[in-house]
Structure formats: structure tokens, C-alpha cells
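Entry 12.
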Amino acid sequence: MELPELGTNLLQHVPPRWISVAERYLKRVPVLRERLAKETDTMLAGLEGDLKPYRGQVPTHAQLPAQGLPREQVLREMGVMETREHERWKEGFVSGAVYHGDSEHIDFLNQVYALNSQSNPLHADLWPSATKFEAEVVAMTANMLGAAEANAGRPPEAHVCGSLSSGGTESILLAMKTYRDQAREERGITRPEMVAPASAHPAFEKAAHYFGIHMVRVPVGPDYRADVDAMRKAINRNTIVVIGSAPSFPHGVIDPIEQLSELARERGIGFHTDACLGGFVLPWARKLGYPVPDFDFRLPGVTSMSADTHKFGYAAKGTSVVLYRGSALRSHQYFTSTEWSGGIYFSPTFAGSRPGALIAAAWASLVSTGEAGYLESTRRILETADVLKRGIRAIPELYVLGEPLFVIAFGARGLDIYQVMERMGAKGWNLNGLHKPAAVHLCVTLRHTQPGVAERFLEDLKGAVEYVRAHPSDKGTMAPVYGLAATVPFRGLVSDLLKKYMDLISKV
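Predicted 3D structure (C-alpha cells):
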């Protein structure tokens, strides 16, 4: 599935609308359609073994057993899989994904979950503990992100407030839906737009897709941060919100939030800081003396934020916080139904029933860690990240993108960085592939602060670079997929491939 280099270069100068029309036409040609299907199926067939490693090793359950299995057998089957999987993340071979991972911390959260396994904040009268935990998690997160300064001298209804969601994506979806509804009600905007740097998380694109918002993606500057002048030019009368990241997921750099939020404030529109990744790191990094620019509610133009408790907040997977400057803005997030025959109904987020046990685990993680715990964890993470950045920069073929703190993106000169990623995968490392430009990143967590992990990563990375330099024709399994996504101008072809990949994941 390769285009000639000349054709690819020429297509880079063709308007996207024309490319889209050409792609639709080409996909209707039977011979080409069949060839594309064959090549993508071949590519995915090479991945199936990696995605379905338990076939033939543990029983497959495609339908309900006639009689329920003994609980001991169920636990035994699950234990086989858990043992194999935890070995990689436990030893720090994974970028992000598991942010704490200490056995005592996990056992503690599991006990909290067990105590609250039946609770559901939808029924606040039955489980007032769940709403207590949620309100306090939101308040603690808000105060960590500048709420005290923002609230000073303002009435309670103007104080920073928020909700707990199922993760960063839902927090972002909720915020974008909120701005859409606010703009429609208060400004009469029926064709809403959001302005975001190209590095903004795909959750914003998903929100645009779901809620009928036109997303204007603005190229980032040479430092991989949002370009303030370009963002200013992209704002128009239909803009409802401007986006910035602290830091961005791909490159780990902090956008110029102060300048961007002022652009929004001057225009009377919203500004959202996506701190899903950095919300529980940057406040402590600043206290430790690292150069962290203002990014939170201390800036008057910031009107909403997202911060993930289940990342560096060290909670169990499935919680995030979305925050707003004032309850009037948050009210546009809510859903109410007053005419249903089943009675009045209301919910603050997309879900109706929500797992109170996860809310309790988030609360327990925050209060048991405390400021001292977050400071110490952040110190260890940033010191390890400094070691890794120095080591990567010492490899002549590699370079670090921008000036990151703890999410380290690096590219390559004179060799294929995706092949380096593939080789690192063969050594057990699970890294994130990036493109535009082609790069790889490692999100440093507490797992990487264990003795010897950073040194092992750098040694394996040197070996991977040497191997790829000596074997440039090796393709592997995932490297061609990333290479395709980075070079093929027909985005629909890549989208079709990803949809087939998701189909493959869902197979029994």
C-alpha cells in the first residue's frame, strides 16, 4: 500500500477537499478496492497473534456456559492472564498506562473498592457517601489548580466547581458540550467552532464529531507549542472555545496558556486547559522549582479545565475531573427530564448510573497521598525524566522534540524511528508512536523511577538504534502501520485500516 514518492509529494500541495473527492472515486474502482482490502487484511493478519495471545491457552467463552463455572475456576483463568500482563508494566516497560503500580497502593484501592462496590451516586439518598466523595475530589482538585486565588472576593456561584467523569475523554466531551449549549442559549450560535492546536488530544475531535462543532486545527510552532498568532487568526464570530494543553499528549510541552486564554477572554469566549496529563504533576513541579508557566484558574481567561485523577492522581482507572469557573457555566453540562412518566430524572454527566466504588477510590487515593506524597512522587518522576532526556540526547541519531518535563518525545536522523520503536517492542518496551513529525514518546511514571529502569531503557535504546542502522530493511508488524499513517495523504484509507483494527480487537 505504497504510493510513489513523487505522487505523495505532489498530493501534499493538493487541497484536502480535492483529495477527499479523489479518494472516494478511487475506492469505487473494484480492482483498487480489492487490492486495498487484501493489503490491509494481510497487514492486520500479522497483528492478530499479538492481539489474541490467549487463544488455545485459556478457555474461550463465546456463549454462556450451560452451568455457571465454579468461582475458583473463574479466578484461576483470570489469574493466568493477569500474571502474564502485570510483568511488563510492573517492571516499568510501559509508557504511561500504569502511573503508580505499587502493590501496597493497589491493595489499598482494592479494599476501598470492595467497601463501596454497590454504591451508585445516581441514588444519592441511598449512598450519600458517594456524593460526599465526589464533591471533595472535585474541591481538592480545584484548589490544587488555583481555585483559591480565583474564588477570592467572588460570590459562591462564581467559584470554581465541577464534576467527576469516567476519564479524560469524557471530561473533554462534557466541557465541549457545555460550551456548545452555552453559546447557543446565550449568543444564538448555531454553527459553533472550536479552535485548537494540531497537538490537542483527539477527544476534542471526538467532541466535535458528536456535538456538531466545527474543529479548526491550527499547526503548532517549531517548538511544538500552540502558535498564538495563528490561533488568533483562526478565531471568528462562531468560535465558542479555544483550547490549550498542559502539557500536550504527543510532545509533552505546555502551550502558551496565558496568551491563549487572554485571546479568548478579550473576545468573550471560553478557554479550556486540557491538563488531563499534567494536572497532578505541574502544580507540584512548580513547588519543586521547575519552570512551569501559569496554566490554571490563576489566569482569569481560563474558564474550564480537565485533570485526570486516574493518571498522576494515582486513582483506579475510570475517573477524571472537569472544572468550570462558576456554576452558571457548569449548568449547561447538566441533563434534566421533567416530563417522563417514570418521574423526574437528572444526571450531571453522560452516564446515569456511575460506579461509586471508583469515586471512593479516587477520594481515597487523594487523601492518602496528600501534598507531601504528590511532591515526592513528582520529584522522583522529574529527576528520572532528566536522566532519560540526557541519555536520549547523547545518542547521535536521536533528538528530543521541544522542551518537555516528563513526557519525552524523540525522533531520529537518518533512520526510521518506527523501526526503532519496533525493536524496542521486541525487547519488551511498550512505547507510543507519534507522527507529524514521526517520533516516539515515553511518558515517565513512578514505574520508571525504580532502580535501574532508566538505565535499562537507555541501554536498550542504544542497542535498538544500532540494530536499525545495521538492518534498515526490517519492517516488523506495527512499523508499517505507523509509516502508512504518516505518509499516505488519503486519510480515509488510514481510517478504514483503524476501523478494521478495532474489528479485530473485538473478535473472540
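Annotation: Confidence is low (pLDDT under 50) at residues 1-14. The chain has 18 helices and 13 strands.
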